[in-house]
Amino acid sequence: MSKKRISYIYEWRYTVYSIVKGLIVTFVNLFRKKVTLQYPEVKWDLPEGYRGMPTLPVDETKGADRCIACQACVRACPTQLITVDSHMGEDKKRVIDSFTMNIGLCMFCGMCEEVCPVDAIRMSDHYELASFTRDELLCDRAKLNQMGGVWPPAPERAAEPAESGTD
Ligand code: SF4
Ligand code: SF4
Q: pLDDT digit string (tens) for 17-54?
């Protein structure tokens, strides 16, 4: 047999072998558990402790978020995206003039939540933060309150009802 003919038979056998092998892989995966989701119609089940966008939930016992303008989060944030402006009130407590986060710079490390002495910042489960402009990623206090919902989050309220009114 000529060399050309041997090469042709080898290539033909290899092609059939590849097709059969590929079909077997496809067939086996038909019965495996699906790992893809029809996003955005179907959302992820987020794991416990998931760190999404940092927020300022509203403590209903105070009628506002719990921030005391201590600036600890401002100092701790590695990307320096938090700005807190305040002045001293008549009762010698700091009054917040503005609280801003540039979420476009956030790396969701959770340091701000960690250092806050009054548990004012909470990493939420918001992860759909894409926007058309950078300005939309600048979040003021009202937006951070809205995104944060009610303090503390419902699962914690159910687990630790005695702590829900503490300062
Ligand atoms: S999660 Fe990290 S990067 Fe984002 S605001 Fe908090 S400290 Fe800054
Ligand atoms: S650390 Fe907490 S209390 Fe202090 S400024 Fe930041 S959010 Fe407010």
A: 999 999 999 999 999 988 888 999 999 899 988 999 99
Residue nearest to atom 2 of ligand 2 (CA): 116
Model confidence over 46-90: pLDDT tens digits? 998 899 999 999 999 999 999 999 999 999 999 999 999 999 999
pTM over cut 0.85: no
Please calculate the CA angle 126-129-133 and round it to the nearest 5 degrees.
155
The ligand 2 atom nearest the CA atom of 56: 7
**DSSP labels, 81-117:** -EEEEEEE-TTSSEEEEEEEEEGGG-----HHHHH-T
Q: Under a CB-based contact definition with an 8 Å cutoff, are residues 122 and 113 in contact?
A: yes
Longest dimension (CA), the chain: 103
Query: Closest ligand 2 atom to the C-alpha of 119?
Result: 2
